[in-house]
Amino acid sequence: MNRRVRDFRRLLTGLAYLLPNIAGFCAFTLVPLALSFAMAFTNWDILRHNRFRQEPLHWAGLENFARLLADPQFWRDLGNTLFFTLGLPFAIAGSLGAALLLTRVSRRRTALGPALVVATLVLVASAAVLLAGGLAQRGVLVLGGTMAAAVLVAGVVTGGTIYRTLFYLPHFTAGVATFVLWKKLYNPHTGPFNTALAPVLDGLSAVVRGAPGFFTYGVPVLCGAAALAAALWQGRRLRRRWADGEAGSAAIVTGTLTLGGPLGLFLHWQGQGGWVAGGAGAAVVAGLGGWILRQPRCWGPRRAADTGLGAELSLALAGVPLLLLLAGGLLLGPALPALAATGLEPPNWLGDYAWAKPALMLMALWAAIGSNSMILYLAGLSNIPPELYEAADMDGASAMQRFWHITWPQLAPITFFIAVMGVINGLQGGFEMARTMTQGGPAGSTTTLSYFIFTQGFETGRLGYASAIAWVLFGLVLVFSLLNFRFGNRDVND
Fold it and tell me: 3-state DSSP: the chain helix, strand, coil percent, rounded to 5?
């Protein structure tokens, strides 16, 4: 038997072992993808093209995509999808915080005081929820004390393993069951959240009625001052980075968009038209960007336009939500005295247009803190050379200095990966929670692109139009992935 025949037989043997996997991939991935791509250019509608009506299927070309760009519902659902991604910075911060706590527990370096404070806050909050849910006070004490003692003993004995399991527990809990549970928790009449919030809001109403001027004028002034300080800090930082050659023109534009974007959204929330809000945001970007770019750059090697773009994209993940929170304070502060006059009521979490998205984001944050991001951070923390911390201790560095100058830079590759996957999952996700908890409402406020694809394809029957939406979503995911891998990886490696 010559060598060629023997190699051919080995190839056939290998293909035979791989055949089940290849067949499954072709049947459930490759063929559906090809059919979806072809359907995106047709007028396929289940109500018209079926065995009972047998209308001819027509080639629509780019008609579905043109219709998509003119569909206001698509732009609304795209905005909802991007809005949900604003919770990503909080999820990253929570995952990193949980990983740091678990690492300190496993190394037995946790200070007793902070640990007791955190445990006390968790126990008090849990007891308040149980009491609000109707459990007797004695039952709360017995249950809370037993669980606290059991977790404490198990955590010490296992060296923190039980803590990691408890943090990771929400991740492998069935999604639909978790959504049903949270829907019960968000019930505006019998849910424990609103039952526990009612006395707190009554006390806050009394405080607002006692000092209405502070909330009418003080809160907006404080939020505006904080937003102005953040804007000045960002402008000076960008100007310095441009002068030092650490940021290119693309990075400067991205950094200024961090300020112009929230300003445009704030004006839109106040009732301004899209042209006014967009024009104001564009004016901020153009004015601040021009002021920075007029600053002469330092003498040195020429930098590319995208130098430092990854750092600006990462900062935008934290800066945009912060500025939007301050904008919310500007709007909410003056309205509080009028609301407190009749008493502040707990929100209708899933039934109110303004609260539906924050409610789902809060639930997603709870699930994200102990997810795979925490596991990745735990692995990254274990790989940081201890010699760096020893050298920092010898130099007298504080805990905060050790974090900012050692821990955070060493975790940059992991943070980059988590951010990339978070954006991709945010663009693709939202279907299960919208289907289970809100049906996309109220008034479409929680309808994401994935749920929009489902409704167009399987409720209205427009499979060609739904396929076009799916491929537009694929394009968005591809663009974000390429941008992050193109610019983020280089900054990480540098």
Answer: 80, 0, 20
Q: What is the pTM of this model?
A: 0.79
DSSP 3-state assignment of 383?
coil
pLDDT value of residue 136: 62
Which of 346, 368, 391 is the last residue before a domain boundary?
346
Q: How many other C-beta atoms are found inside a 10 Å radius of the C-beta of residue 388?
A: 15
Q: Largest alpha-carbon pair distance within the chain? A: 97
Per the structure, the complete domain to which residue 9 belongs is given by 1-39
What is the C-alpha to C-alpha distance for residues 137 and 162, in angstroms, rounded to an integer?
27
pLDDT tens-digit map of 144-198: 666 665 665 555 555 566 677 777 777 777 678 888 889 998 998 888 888 878 8
d(C-alpha 224, C-alpha 229), whole Å: 8
For 205-264, the DSSP string reads HHHHHH-HHIIIIIHHHHHHHHHHHHHHHHHHHHHHHHHTT-S-HHHHHHHHHHHHHHHH
CA distance 396 to 405: 13
**Res 265 pLDDT > 90:** no
Q: Please, what is the end-to-end C-alpha distance for the chain in angstroms?
A: 54
Give which of 415, 349, 401 is closest to 192, Cα–Cα: 349
Q: Is 134 left (phi over 0), alpha (psi -120 to 50) or beta?
A: left
- Are both 357 and 481 inside the same structural domain? yes
- Indicate the angle between helix axes 219-243 and 309-341, nearest 10 degrees: 170
Helix (H, G, I), strand (E, B) or coil at 186: coil
309-341 and 412-428 are packed helices; what angle lies between their axes, rounded to 10 degrees?
60
The number of domains in the chain is: 3
Distance CA 409, CA 100 (A): 15
- CB within 8 Å of 69: residues ≥ 6 apart: none
Residue 415 has pLDDT above 70, yes or no: yes
| 384 domain-assigned | yes
pLDDT of 491 above 60: no
Element (H, E) at 289: helix 274-293
**Is residue 172 situated within a structural domain?**
no
Q: What is the DSSP annotation of 431-484?
A: HHHIIIIITT-STTTT--HHHHHHIIIIIS--HHHHHHHHHHHHHHHHHHHHHI
Rounded Cα distance between 144 and 147, Å, is: 5
